[in-house]
Amino acid sequence: MSTSVKVTDRTKSHLEELQAEIRLETGRKVTQQELLERIITETYESKDELIDSFRDDFEPLSDDEIEQWLSGSSDWGVETNEDGIDAVLYGE
Predict the structure, then answer these.
(1) Has residue 75 got a pLDDT over 80?
(2) H-type alpha helices, 1-92
(3) Can you state the angle between helices 9-26 and 32-45, rounded to 10 degrees?
(4) What is the pLDDT, as a whole number, of residue 18?
C-alpha cells in the first residue's frame, strides 16, 4: 500500500541531499521511500528524543523569581470566588 505525504520544498531538498550523500558514501542508490522508511523506523525505536523536540522550551521560574512576582501582590481585604471573577471578566 502506498500513501503520499506532502512535504515542503525544503524537506524535499533535504531528502534529495541525503540521497546524494548516501550514494556518494556507499555507492548505493536509495529511493526517497527507502530513505523515509529507514529514518522513521530508526527514529521510532528511539522516539523519546523526537517527542522531546516537540515540547515547549518552557523553563519554570526560580524560587527567587516566584517570590519577586508574588511580592507585587497585596491583600485588598475583599473576598473573591470563581463566580465573582467570571462575572467581572465576562459579564453576568
Answers:
(1) yes
(2) 9-26, 32-45, 47-52, 63-70, 82-90
(3) 90
(4) 95
Nearest to 27 by CA among 35, 15, 19: 19
Ramachandran quadrant class, 60 (left: phi over 0; alpha: psi -120 to 50; beta: rest): beta
pLDDT tens-digit series, residues 14-62: 999 999 999 999 999 999 999 999 999 999 988 888 888 888 878 888 9
3 state SS of 41: helix
Query: What's the burial of 15, exposed, middle or buried (CB within 10 Å: 0-12/13-18/19+)?
Result: middle
Q: What is the value of pTM for the model shown?
A: 0.53
Residues 6+ apart with CB under 8 A from 67: none
Domain residue spans of the chain: 9-71
Cβ atoms of 61 and 67 closer than 8 Å: no
